[in-house]
Amino acid sequence: MSDKTKTFEIQKRRGLVVWVYSLKQLKNLRRYGFVHYVSPKMKYVVLYVNEEDVQKDIEKLNRLHFVREVDISRRPDIDMNFGDKLGTAAAFQVAENTEEDHNE
Q1: Is residue 5 part of a domain?
Q2: CA distance 23 to 72
Q3: Residue 51 belongs to a domain
């Protein structure tokens, strides 16, 4: 029975900012990934694609005639653990002060 059941696996994703000349071809971008946000004023689209397909998708997007430029998100490369940089005492200091204020 375990052979027939599928397990849910989280796909690693990467954000791409696709700068376009016109938003008329927005539906064409949906085949490359998940369209998260569209800015009609600044004419860019935030697109999420699978991590393993990033370089292949960037090359394909750059070949499209309505695409001006493709930028890759660097957020997954940044260490988001700031506890070491602040120190544990500084990180919990705000929480301790709020509890003392409620007790008074």
Answers
A1: no
A2: 19
A3: yes
* SS3 track for the chain: CCCCCCCCCCCCEEEEEEEECCHHHHHHHCCCCEEEEEECCCCEEEEEEEHHHHHHHHHHHHHCCCEEEEEECCHHHCCCCCHHHHCHHHHHHHHHHHHHHHHC
| More confident: 102 or 27 | 27
Residue 7 lies inside a defined structural domain of this protein:
no
- Contact present, 28 and 35 (Cβ < 8 Å): no
Q: State which amino acid sits at residue 21.
A: Y
Report how many domains make up the chain.
1
Residue 26 in tokens: 């927005």
* Domain interval for residue 92: 12-104
Q: What is the mean pLDDT of residues 53-72?
A: 96
User: What's the pLDDT score for residue 11?
Assistant: 87
